[in-house]
Request: fold
Amino acid sequence: MSWVRSHWLSALGLTFCLASTGVVATAQGVEPSGGTPLRLSLNEALKRGLGNALALQSSQLDVEENRALLGLAKTRFLPKLDLVALGTYAQVGTSVGFISNVPTIGDINLSVNTNGYANVQNSFANVGLAINYPLLDFGRGPLKQSAQASLAASQSALNEQQRRTKFDIESAYLNAQLADALIPVWQQSLTLSSTLLANARAIRRVGLAARIDTSQAEALWQTDRAGLADALAQRQIALSSLARVLNEPANQQLSLSDPLQRTKAWPLSLGSTLERSLQQRPSLEALEYQRQAQLAAVRLARSSLLPSVGLLLGGGFNGDRLSVQGEGASSSLSGTFYDVGALVNVRQPLFDGGVSQQSTALAQRRVEQSAVAIEVAKQAITQSVQTWFSIHGASGLQIEAAAAAVRAGNVAVADALLRFRAGIAPITDCLIAQRNLQAARSAEAAALHRWNLARAGLAYETGLP
Reply:
């Protein structure tokens, strides 16, 4: 009997070594190939992401676009100066003594005998300046106000996007931390299931175990192999997602330097958090500025039926040469002159077919929609804060419970394995204890992740660091 036990322990040790080697090979076989990964802490990731994020670049371009639109609206307050020039040439052959309605010449009286003939040539040139200035324009004020409000809205949206980008980077980093933390969990589980499988096979070779023991142990081992492969793939997906948020090149591999660990508890109460999240919130400010822009659009639509007064000032220098040839005699006349003038233009629309009325009604509906959008955003912020706060509070208890379950699971696995080797407990006890331990370890990592993610969500909603 002692020879059997010695032979069984020798076979068990050899099989365990082979199984452990298989675990390492399995883990390495799923790792992606590539160059040296860029190792980043959370703070380093935030610095890189906030400087390169595409979403921030897009929001900055929106600000520049609205700044250009404001500059365009301001041009309605400035005069328009034009350089005008005109040059004409006309030639008229006539057998009558009177020429009428000739372009650039006008009316001319000539002394032409019966059956006589005259050739009239005229050259004219003009260079001048024209200034057009709107003295009274009820539309330019609302247009400028709308552009100013739109610019302020885009700037507030940029501030909100900075918050959002920070949260996106932090959440992507935390997701990668969770995926990274689950790999050792599955590796430990695979190591333990390999030990169980080696024990079951060694016992069966000496005729002390049933086939069902090895079958159950192998099923657990294969399940852990699949779980480890999935964990490795999930880590690559999470790291790739982090790289996309940071706007890194597609071939840039990343790795994390900060392990998954519990951060500080959220310092504010639920009421204080809700109050802070609704105060000085860039997204709400952006919606309010958009409502102000829509109010300006209402005034702009109404201004289309109001009078407008414009002033036109002009002046120029002119040169003219008139030549007349006929009946053996010719004469010519040339000279220069200047001209100045002013024109006041008053326009009062009487009826535009209802365009102004319908435009005003449309703009008013948009104002009402903007007011509703503000309330909807407040409700969404409130719900988000309450959700994150609840998750954060529950995660604390979950972390403590999962840690206690891990400690108990380690003891249970060790005891079950000893009892199985001693032949006083079936392998089913080992399988159950092993699976419970793996679930407890995964639950502990998930609870830590939810704790940290909820705190990041509360920081995003309130703007606190």
Summary: Residues 287 and 374 are 6 Å apart (CA to CA). The mean pLDDT is 85.
